[in-house]
Amino acid sequence: MHLEVLGPVTPKVSIIAFLPFLAVLIPFIGAVFAAIFSGKTKIRNAIVVSTTILTFVIVLCMYQPVVQGIHIGEHFYRGIECSFPSGLGFGINFGVDAVGLLIAAITAFIWALSCIYATSYMSVEHAQGRYYFFALLTLGANLGVLLTKDFFSLFLFFELLAVFSYVLVVHEETEEAMAAGRLYLYMSVIGGLLLLGGIIILAAKVGKIDIAPMAALMKKTMPSYLRYLVAIMMIAGFGSKAGIFFLHVWLPEAHPIAPTPASALLSGLMIKAGAYGILRTVNTLFAPVARAAAHSSTHASHATQAAQAAHGAGWTMLTSLGYGLIWIGVITMFFGVVNALLSPNCKRMLAYHSVSQMGYIVMGLGCAAYLGTDGAMGLAGGLYHIVNHALFKAGLFLAIGAVYFRTRELDMYKLGGMWRNMPFTALACFIAVCGISGIPLFNGFASKTILHHAILEAYEHSAHYSAVHRPDILLIIAEVFFVLTAFGTFCSNMKMWSFVFIWKRPEKFKDVEPEPLSMRIAMFAISAAILFIGLKPNWLLEKFIGPALANFGFDPVSHPYHILYNIHATGLRSTIPLLYDPKTYAFLTNPEVVHNLLGLSICILGGGMYFILGYRFGWFHVDPPEWVSIKYWYLKLAAGTVFLISKVSIFISDAVDKSYYALSDAFLLTPKLITKYKRRFQDTVVPVIFGLPEEEEVAAERRELLERLEDRKIAMVRKAVRQATLEMIREEVSVEERRKKLARVREEAMKEAEAIAQAELDMFREAILRMAEAGLPAAERRRRIMDIMRLVDVMREAGAKVTSMEKVEAMEEPLKEATAKVAKMPAAVSMDIIADVVKEAAAKMA
User: Fold this and answer.
1) Is the dihedral angle over the CA atoms 604, 606, 612, 614 positive or is it negative?
2) DSSP 515
3) Angle 393-399-400 (CA atoms, 0-180°, nearest 5)?
4) Measured CA distances, 576 to 67, 385, 807 (Å)
5) How far is CA 719 from the centre of its chain?
6) How many CA atoms are closer than 13 Å to the CA of 304, on its beta-carbon side?
7) Long-range pairs of 80-89 with CB within 8 A, sequence gap ≥ 24
């Protein structure tokens, strides 16, 4: 019997509504207690493990009210909502549906196992208390991303996730770790700013930022270009965390350097926050409120009418976004696996596989958006693969981490034969390798099969969106890349497993001890989950993924939706034949199952052949040039940006300095400045009008010369300090080191300026002496000194060192000629020509 759902459970209805808040709060409380007892290892470890297990239990307690619904009194509710307003017009709003709960459940499960594993792994590491403190804080932030109701609340937890996980990345505190951490932080900040920009535009134009379908509302309130801008900004913001290609550069840097338990969390779980954000942006925010689909007796007719209803005569925005996501996913999966094939470092290889596997997920989300009302297969495949990737990637990282824990070696070519010393780890790693490779009986088989169906459906339905009513051949090319990526995934993971566990064991690893018990517990639980899902592939569809499809407006009578999850069935709800036919348990007699098995067999065969050929001809040791790396071009772009900013900042700084001192001289008439200008008035204006005795003219001449030399000396020191500051900022020198270096630069610049000032003073005294001997009056001598000073400035600007009157006199004639020649030219051009003349003259004198 189907009951009417009144809405989600709220605090007014039941205290159950506080469960998502508790799921986020408890890790924060546990982090505080873990920090308090950081010096007592056993108590701290017990707090950490019990906190993560309790969090997992609380997440599971939300299953009944969120997925199945719950009776409270005489009413029926489904979902959970809980808000904490701040009084400032915004607050933290929690909202849980089946999608968020599914990812939150796998997150809490893997996190608990990672912390159990870490009790052994971190026992020999430094700063253990800090690691556990930030690991629990990161868990709370990660769950906050998944259990929120609006994009602003999601953004807050998304940024906290970046800040807290940064400490896990730089845990080793080596130069390499700090560099990886900076890169991770830069990408997180850039992604966060893009995401925030999209949210602000959405709030300003639409007036709300709920995680809900708003395509129709946005179409009314926003022009087309602005809607695309919001979509691109939010996809890029979430994509920087998800590791989509071109934004993935932090993953292969951060994952290998972080402690293994943190790597499992970074790679298996935290990047899912990015995938979840993309899902909420494209498949929720930009989806229509209701996608009406026409019903027909034939599937072809139904597909055509559904396409017209959902997309109109041409391509709608959702279709365009879906098509773009398909290709972003394909590019990400393919180039990720190519990099993985060439990586000798086990953790770096697994990091590149995280990039590649995220490509599968993004492609599935793209297929869901592209197919509109018939997109259930793509979304189901993407959600299924989020869970599967979390399991087998955590299993791979923990297995390799156990090997590293005992051997302190990550280069797969320097390991070998570890199955003799660590048979349990070898078996757990093999199960995870089979999972990621999509081998039947393991979890990856189901999700990769569904995703393969999705890309084929996208190709078949593409004719409905084409002006010529022909399928898009590019989507078949995308399917080819899907298969090639499967080749590379099997090849690279079997290569790693073979080199680490099967190949000849080096003599120095002969006495390696087995993994500790806590590591075995974590790896056993993950392996059991991989096998359970692999042997019962329809279980996850019936319990989590199928119910979640109802929130995305898919046509419930469409063939993909019907076989994935039949909402009207009383018994068996998911009838899609994956490993076997759920109705008859037929294995090799069902043609669809045979087709699935043949497809994966081809991938295994292709991957195996590539492994043999690659090993035989040394393809795995190819070292591509640096310029093919995305990171190389990012660094070039960053260096160019810093260069331009430094030039602009120098120009602005000079202008500000000149303006400041001009204004200071003009308006800030302190007693010292009043005295100074009074003296200048007496030394300049009074002699011109009234004249002065000779001895007073000489005294005024001396004072003015010394003041001008002092001003020039201060300007020289200030310029040297400013240039040194900009260079150290560009080189990312720490504040403390910058302070020390600036003190040295200031001291050296002062010495050099004093030496130059003394040399110029001697030169001017010589000039004054000559002019006095020639009988020039003091007023004329002062005018000539000012001319010489300006000439010295021009010479110094051109790079010539001025140490004697002979040089000044040698420059006068060519300078007069150059000045006369360029008198009518622009000032900047004139100075360039005069500077060239000075350089030529200085070169001749040298």
Assistant:
1) negative
2) P
3) 90
4) 21, 16, 93
5) 37
6) 9
7) 80/8, 80/9, 80/16, 80/17, 80/19, 80/20, 81/8, 81/9, 81/10, 81/17, 81/149, 82/10, 82/11, 82/17, 82/18, 82/20, 82/21, 83/149, 84/21
Copy the structure tokens of residue 263.
């790597």
Residue 331 to residue 663: CA distance in whole angstroms:
58
In terms of DSSP H, where are the helices of 668-777?
671-689, 694-730, 735-773
Distance CA 720, CA 131 (A): 43
Four-residue CA torsion sign, 729, 733, 737, 743: negative
Exposure class string for 783-801: b at 16+ Cβ within 10 A, else e: eebeebbebbebbbebebe
What residue spans of 408-472 are helical by DSSP H?
Answer: 418-421, 423-437, 444-461
**Alpha-carbon torsion 534, 459, 362, 186, what sign?**
positive
Predicted local distance difference test score (pLDDT) of residue 55: 96
| Whole-number Å distance between alpha carbons of 436 and 779 | 91
Helix H, strand E, coil C: the string for 778-835 is HHHHHHHHHHHHHHHHHHHHCCCCCCCHHHHHHHHHHHHHHHHHCCCCCHHHHHHHHH
Q: What's the whole-number mean pLDDT along residues 773-787?
A: 68
Sorted by sequence, the CB contacts under 8 Å of residue 33 that are 6+ apart come out as 47, 51
Return the H-helix or E-strand segment holding 333: helix 317-341
Q: Which of 844, 836, 763 is nearest to 799 (CA)?
A: 836
pLDDT value at position 694?
53
Cα 151-154-159 angle, rounded to 5 deg: 125
User: Minimal CA–CA distance to 168: which of 113, 117, 128, 108?
Assistant: 128
Angstrom distance (rounded) from CA 264 to CA 110: 9
Residue bearing tokens 């279980």: 539
328 close to 364: Cβ distance less than 8 angstroms: no
Distance CA 143, CA 366 (A): 24
Provide the pLDDT for residue 600: 77
CA separation for the pair 428, 446 (Å, rounded): 20
Cβ neighbour number for residue 319 with a 10 Å cutoff: 20
Could you tell me if 298 and 446 are in contact, meaning their C-beta atoms sit under 8 angstroms apart? no
Residue type, 186: Y
Is residue 833 within 8 A of residue 821, CB to CB? The reply is yes
pLDDT at residue number 504: 87
pLDDT level of residue 140 (50, 70, 90 thresholds): very high
Query: CA angle at residue 51 from 48 to 56, to 5 degrees?
Result: 130
d(CA 721, CA 727): 10
Angle (deg, nearest 10), helices 175-206 and 151-169: 180
Residue type, 486: A
- Sign (positive/negative) of CA torsion 831, 834, 840, 842? negative
Backbone angles phi, psi at 96, to 5 degrees: -120, 130
319-328, 653-662, 747-756, range with the lowest pLDDT? 653-662
Pair type for strands 70-72 and 80-85: unpaired
Neighbours of 434 (CB within 10 A): 25
Q: Tell me the residue length of the chain.
A: 846
pLDDT digits (tens, 9 = 90+) for 531-563: 999 999 999 999 999 999 988 888 888 888 889
Residue 523 pLDDT more than 90?
yes
pLDDT in tens, 431-457: 999 999 999 999 999 999 999 999 999
**Cα–Cα distance for residue pair 221/229, rounded to 1 Å:** 14
* Widest Cα–Cα separation across the chain: 122
Query: What angle do the packed helices 19-36 and 41-61 form, to 10 degrees?
Result: 180
Task: Examine the pLDDT at 783 and tell me if it is beyond 70.
Answer: no
CA–CA distance, 534 with 529 (Å, rounded to integer): 8
